[in-house]
């Protein structure tokens, strides 16, 4: 994939800082990757240590570019949580431990280069819309489904940021008023029903209930297949739930169906408000591929009445989208200077 | 309000074509109105006759401008329904009877002026955002609540149109999965719970049920106040429901509360996806003023968790917003030429 920085090339230093790891690269103006590396975030060390790693890794990448005769021209950094892109501040990133970190200023000062700070899902959406699965569409909604659910609305290659850097929070729209309580405190958010963690939680709940109660009136009979294969309380991941559902296990099928239906409701709401050409589904849950996209497409189709149905496709850039998007954001900032 | 076209002024011809009436004006580049007039749409005559009236009224306004020594420089027309602004076609306007009417071309040809076609709620949102209740905000959501519910997301004075001219359909987002069926065919849309027509319908249903059944176990007792004041089946408007709720009638209070709660859910979803500074509430239901906005603000407040709460204000331009917005859209098109 990467062919090394070339002599005389202009390159962007790009970092996507996540809760567990950092994806880092030197990226050309056409979006191709000259060099890529990964580092652990090790957030437990505290925010100061993480910031120092970010700065050291960025500096190392710039040095590597110069050593090869290339010119680093800018640096883009993506972080999760609430990001004030205009101010360049990581307002709140729970899983990285950042709170009001002026990361743009710190990176710019250390590297002596123009720097930008972006939101991981928004820059991921920019990358998917320009270089990935949405590259033929002008209006794209990128939806990342993992531990949480978030979206980026990208029109003509630019992602909507919102008035307070919080646009695209599709994980926190109401889909099930009587549904489970979300981490945000409200009941029935999409994230509380259809995220990978919600699917795993729901499966565990139902399996435990089945194991403990047994089928009505046959308390001593063998528990059904889903519960029989594991002791109560053992964690089963969303990917395993998908696998069991595909293998015909009834309980897993029910949990998967519930999640897909709520997700279709959420996407239908997104389409009503944004009206896009293409929805790009990314994040860990999208690795289920057509097992997710097939039923999701069919269920979304049922929900479209007078609206035009968006094309529903899997993300193409995998977990490199954030790093590529950080580079694109940095390149955009150079154009605007 | 209007002071007549002046000698040497540049003016825009603007028309907002609704199901029952057309609001028409000559508008200055600063948004002030030089002359205003209204005409019945009389949609029952069929689309050809309505189009002819639109063209004749527009021509009459241009002539009036010229007669006063002013120069008509462009024409903006707003229509409801599905509008392809890029193509200038009224794709589908049920209450006006338009289907695939190339209104921009027709108006431009008749007047010999640059013409634009806009969506009534989107241009209304532009007007409220630039000249009305949202004029101090950069990110505005204009929500029009009447027979239906629709929104316009306006950033820096421009309204998002979407990939197919259908952005902002907040009336058709899911808020009550077990709720009443919407006109669009899906159950539980916001419009099916919180529009003026939904409020009137819900009140009638509950009042009829109460009248027919009577309070449990006291079939011969006097029916409650709401039902007592009218025979079953009589239409009570949303405005009357608001009035009765304010007067302390229990049934009306319940219906009003249900509508406000669903509306707050819908606005919370809008805030999660758009992240605006200010929400401007317009349309017929907004005439209830603080009786709507007070509880709506309180209920929306409860729904905000990590999101910043938008300012919630009543629309300032009344039913002139669409006509003013059509003029602004025409002025914008001149700037881009």
From TrEMBL, chains A, B:
Residues 211-230 are annotated as: Disordered. Gene3D superfamilies: 3.30.420.40. Signal peptide: none annotated. Keywords: Kinase, Transferase. The keyword Transferase applies. GO terms for molecular function: kinase activity. Pfam families: ROK. PANTHER family: BIFUNCTIONAL UDP-N-ACETYLGLUCOSAMINE 2-EPIMERASE_N-ACETYLMANNOSAMINE KINASE (PTHR18964:SF149), ROK (REPRESSOR, ORF, KINASE) FAMILY (PTHR18964). Belongs to the ROK (NagC/XylR) family. This is Glucokinase.
């Amino acid at each position: 994939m990467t062919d090394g920085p070339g002599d005389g090339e202009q390159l962007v230093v790009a970092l996507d800082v996540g809760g567990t790891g950092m994806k880092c690269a030197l990226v050309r103006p056409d979006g191709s990757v000259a060099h890529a590396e990964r580092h652990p975030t090790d957030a437990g060390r505290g925010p100061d240590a993480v910031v120092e790693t970010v700065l050291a890794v960025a500096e190392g990448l710039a040095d590597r570019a110069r050593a090869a005769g290339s010119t680093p021209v800018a640096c883009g950094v993506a972080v999760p949580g609430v990001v004030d892109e205009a101010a360049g501040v990581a307002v709140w990133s729970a899983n990285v431990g950042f709170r009001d970190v002026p990361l743009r200023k710190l990176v710019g000062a250390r590297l002596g280069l123009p720097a930008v700070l972006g939101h991981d899902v928004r820059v991921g959406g920019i990358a998917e819309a320009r270089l990935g699965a949405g590259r033929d569409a002008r209006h794209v909604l990128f939806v990342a489904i993992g531990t949480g659910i978030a979206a980026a609305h990208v029109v003509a290659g630019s992602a909507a940021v919102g008035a307070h850097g919080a646009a695209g929070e599709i994980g926190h729209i109401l889909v099930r008023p009587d549904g489970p309580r979300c981490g945000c405190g409200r009941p029935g958010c999409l994230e509380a029903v259809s995220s990978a963690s919600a699917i795993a939680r729901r499966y565990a709940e139902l399996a435990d209930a089945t194991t403990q109660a047994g089928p009505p009136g046959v308390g001593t009979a063998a528990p059904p297949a889903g519960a029989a294969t594991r002791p109560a309380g053992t964690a089963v991941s969303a990917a395993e739930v998908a696998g069991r559902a595909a293998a015909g296990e009834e309980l897993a099928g029910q949990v998967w169906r519930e999640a897909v239906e709520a997700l279709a409701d959420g996407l239908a709401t997104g389409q009503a408000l944004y009206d896009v050409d293409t929805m790009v589904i990314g994040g860990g849950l999208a690795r289920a591929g057509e097992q997710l996209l097939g039923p999701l497409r069919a269920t979304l189709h049922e929900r479209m009445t007078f609206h035009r149905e968006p094309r529903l496709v899997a993300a193409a850039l995998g977990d490199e989208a954030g790093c590529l998007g950080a580079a694109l954001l940095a390149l955009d900032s150079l154009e605007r200077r």
